[in-house]
Fold this protein.
Amino acid sequence: MPQLVVMVGAPLPGGVEDVAATVVGAYGLSPVDGRVLSPDRAMEITLDGIGDAAAIAETLREALPEIDVAVMDEANRRRRVLIADMDATMVVGETIDELAAALGKEAQVSAITERAMRGEIDFEAALDERVAMLAGLDASAIDRVAEGLTYSAGAGALVRTMAAHGARCVLVSGGFDRVTGVVREALGFHADRANHLEVGSDGRLTGRARKPVVDSATKLAMLRETAMAAGVTLAECMAIGDGANDLPMVAAAGFGVAYRAKPTLREATPYRIDHTDLRTALYFQGYEDEEIVALASQR
């Protein structure tokens, strides 16, 4: 089966084809065909053989440091399941940090969040510690945060395009279900799973989350369950996230993507989006602009 090099930029610099030809030539390969996926933004090159995909991709990233690159087989590129993280992936920032801001505790909470996302501390312990700091906050603050979310560029295009082409799309988050429900509807996911914050009779947060919490093991389980329900293998699935708690699902999926990710996750998968937006995950799968839903809005 042919091997492809996909390059995405914002925009692509001139001469990328020549640079790519030089790089793959060093691995004993040559381009034999090419296709523009998005004018001045995304293109793919078909190679005349099979090489070390990870090494080729890394060499291309070094030669073209402002673009995102994937080297992959042509067969079965379009995935039939999408499992996506929410915070810092589908939406900008961490919602728990925004909730903490309402109590003047953003700095304390965000420091714990950062360590948890880097995999430096246990996720459940970090969640419990942060949620405890939210005790006394009016639960309506969750809804205000949900209404004011900034969505990552290309998030809606990614989800709605894959759904339109038959993929089952599920949002799974270590965040909170009152937020993921809003994001699910806004972006077109079929389902969502997240943690539930307990609310007291006074309408305020108790400082506790319902157990068991949604963590990395839950995310991996959701990937497996969704694949089984869809009748597909893990190789036919895509998982995308940014932090250490996304690592098991990203590593298990046939197309595991690290999106502007922490080092722990970036090092665990050959597929990364470091510079461009979430539409790049569609270009990596071979979608052209004409097939992408909601391209104009970039949501």
Residues 76-299 form a domain with the Rossmann fold fold (CATH 3.40.50.1000). Residues 259 and 273 are 5 Å apart (CA to CA). Residues 216-230 form the longest helix (15 residues). The first strand starts at residue 3 and ends at 8.
